[in-house]
């Protein structure tokens, strides 16, 4: 990998982290989008797309909900895809590489999110002095810190790492590669389980199984399921809303009934 | 009623302020810090309106401090809270100018009250629904090497994202807190969240079937007959292993196991099973 390519990958790292910092989350930081961009920089667009898609499945559950810092999809995706292209690794090896890198990126993320305390206090001071410009400077200070941290992480990783990684990958025994391959088929289950924690409860459990059955037993693809899902969701919405109106009407007439009808959605 | 009042008097939300505030809703997390999370981003967003509203140094200082309080919500829906906050700032300023007693700190109380429920709707729609549908469609196309996957993913997520971000500011300002409160009262918020979950779950269930793949090459001999384990699983129900495995992972997560632990656990499981020829 040339130094120019490593620099470009570093820039992509900075842009990737800026998606959720400065951009307001356009999903440019997801493997599905970063993968092809890495492919473009390294001259193998198709591999970038395929590796990015596989990484997306594994990192699907890795999202920054609330205040927690998740494993870093940006550095993990860019470096793993780059190594996969440069060292001609197969997808499963790329996946196995992405995870430790994403954990390292997570540590960097935690450091930056702690160091930004400096800019928060700068903003406090600006507020004290009624200085609007000071707020702007504090915000962009934090943004700069994010950019530079991920630029350096990805640039150094790409520049120094590729030869080390290729040598290392050649030493891996066959059963480990096979095992990683098997694991990369199982890992999407983790992403799905994390999403289930957000969505799944006793009340709506059936819909998970309907979605599963549509695809597993009837071979309906994701687009088809989304269309059917939208229709079901719309119907439920209409029925619940009109039910609620009726319930309110009933509750006014007979107070006793309202206990049985109200409450549960 | 509220609308009329805003329209007949001078409004702080001129097209210019609206445009500036809209652009300033994007870098909400640029200075994210564990201490107060998105607070600098929120204050940054309020700057154009506060600049227009206040001239007194003490007022500016108080307002900025107010908006530097801890804040955290789903980025895509923040413009709604920005709009509502600007409406409240304006209302309080006018009341104060008329010599009325006002408690500006209640603005923060309202912000805090809004950010939780909005993050709830925002997370289930943007993270749990649009992103999942987009990723589901996108990854299946990407597996075939098509760039359309990434493009469709971005479109499916960002069209609702930008619409909500742009019109959220308008809705937040015009109807302010009253709107969400009335929606909450009618239970519409709860219904919408629930409906988003239903749609998300259907797609997640479908992805469980299409994207988790486990099969075993394990073969054993019983009284001289060759038994292929995978055929037994397929005989029970197609895709049984992936579904069962997903539920095991889900149960472990529910028990409080960390996702990072599980991630490494699955990798090790894969390697160990491969060593013994089970997977």
Task: Give an overview in words.
The complex is a heterodimer of chains A (265) and B (279). Chain A is built from 12 helices and no strands. By secondary structure, chain A is mainly alpha-helical. Chain A has 2 domains: 3-199, no CATH class; 205-261, no CATH class. In chain A, helix 2 (31-42) runs antiparallel to helix 3 (45-59), helix 3 (45-59) packs antiparallel against helix 4 and helix 4 runs antiparallel to helix 5. With 279 residues, chain B is mainly α. Chain B has 2 domains: 2-200, no CATH class; 215-275, no CATH class. Helices cover 72% and strands 3% of the residues of chain B. Chain B has helices at 2-8, 15-24, 39-53, 57-66, 78-97, 105-142, 148-185, 188-211, 229-236, 240-254, 259-275; strands spanning 219-222, 225-228. The interface between A and B is large, with 112 and 116 residues.
Q: Largest interface by residue count? A: A-B, 112 and 116 residues
For the CA atoms, what is the radius of gyration of chain B?
26 Å
Tell me the structural class of chain B.
mainly alpha
Give the termini distance of chain B in whole angstroms.
67 Å
Helix percentage range of chain B: over 70%
Estimated share of beta-strand residues of chain B? under 5%
The ordered H/E elements of chain A are HHHHHHHHHHHH
Q: Largest beta sheet of chain B, briefly? A: 2 strands, antiparallel
How far the N terminus sits from the C terminus of chain A, by CA atoms, comes to 57 Å
Number of strands of chain A: 0
Tally of individual helices of chain B: 11
Query: What is the 3D form of chain A?
Result: flat
């Amino acid at each position: 990998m040339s130094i120019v390519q490593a620099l470009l990958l570093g820039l992509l790292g900075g842009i990737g982290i800026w998606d959720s910092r400065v951009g307001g989350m356009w999903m440019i930081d997801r493997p599905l989008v970063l993968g092809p961009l890495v492919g473009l920089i390294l001259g193998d667009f198709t591999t970038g797309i395929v590796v990015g898609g596989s990484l997306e499945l594994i990192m699907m559950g890795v999202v920054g909900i609330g205040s927690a810092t998740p494993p870093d999809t940006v550095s993990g995706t860019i470096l793993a895809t780059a190594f996969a292209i440069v060292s001609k690794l197969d997808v499963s090896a790329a996946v196995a590489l992405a995870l430790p890198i994403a954990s390292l990126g997570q540590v960097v993320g935690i450091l930056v999110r702690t160091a930004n305390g400096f800019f928060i206090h700068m903003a406090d001071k600006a507020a004290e002095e009624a200085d609007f410009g000071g707020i702007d400077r504090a915000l962009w200070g934090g943004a700069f810190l994010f950019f530079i941290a991920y630029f350096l992480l990805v640039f150094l990783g790409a520049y120094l790492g590729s030869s080390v990684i290729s040598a290392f990958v050649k030493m891996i025994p066959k059963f480990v590669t096979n095992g990683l391959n098997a694991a990369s088929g199982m890992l999407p289950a983790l992403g799905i389980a994390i999403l289930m924690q957000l969505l799944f409860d006793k009340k709506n459990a059936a819909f998970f199984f309907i979605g599963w059955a549509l695809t597993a037993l009837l071979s309906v693809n994701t687009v088809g399921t989304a269309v059917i899902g939208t229709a079901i969701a719309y119907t439920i919405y209409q029925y619940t809303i009109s039910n609620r109106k009726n319930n309110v009407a009933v509750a006014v007439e007979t107070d006793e009934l309202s206990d049985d009808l109200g409450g549960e959605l | 009623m509220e609308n009329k009042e805003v329209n007949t008097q001078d409004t702080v939300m001129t097209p210019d302020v609206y445009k500036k505030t809209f652009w300033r809703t994007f870098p909400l997390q640029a200075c994210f810090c564990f201490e107060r999370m998105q607070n600098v981003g929120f204050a940054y967003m309020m700057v154009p309106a506060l600049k227009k509203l206040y001239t007194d140094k003490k007022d500016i200082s108080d307002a900025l401090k107010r908006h530097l309080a801890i804040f955290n919500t789903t980025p895509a829906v923040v413009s709604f809270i920005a709009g509502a906050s600007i409406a409240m700032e304006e209302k309080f300023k006018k009341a104060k100018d008329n010599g009325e007693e006002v408690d500006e700190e209640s603005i923060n109380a309202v912000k805090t009250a809004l950010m939780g429920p909005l993050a709830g709707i925002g997370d289930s729609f943007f993270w749990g629904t649009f992103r999942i549908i987009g990723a589901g469609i996108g990854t299946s196309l990407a597996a075939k090497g098509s760039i359309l996957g990434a493009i469709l993913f971005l479109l499916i997520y960002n069209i609702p994202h930008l619409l909500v971000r742009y019109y959220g500011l308008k809705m937040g300002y015009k109807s302010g807190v009253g709107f969400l409160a009335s929606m909450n009262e009618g239970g519409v918020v709860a219904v919408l969240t629930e409906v988003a979950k239903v749609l998300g779950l259907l797609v997640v269930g479908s992805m469980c079937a299409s994207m988790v793949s486990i099969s075993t090459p394990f073969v054993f001999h019983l009284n001289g007959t060759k038994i292929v384990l995978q055929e037994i699983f397929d005989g029970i129900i197609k895709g049984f292993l992936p579904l069962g495995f997903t539920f095991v992972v889900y149960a472990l997560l529910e028990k409080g196991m960390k996702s990072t632990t599980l991630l490494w656990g699955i990798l090790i499981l894969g390697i160990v099973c491969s060593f013994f020829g089970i997977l």
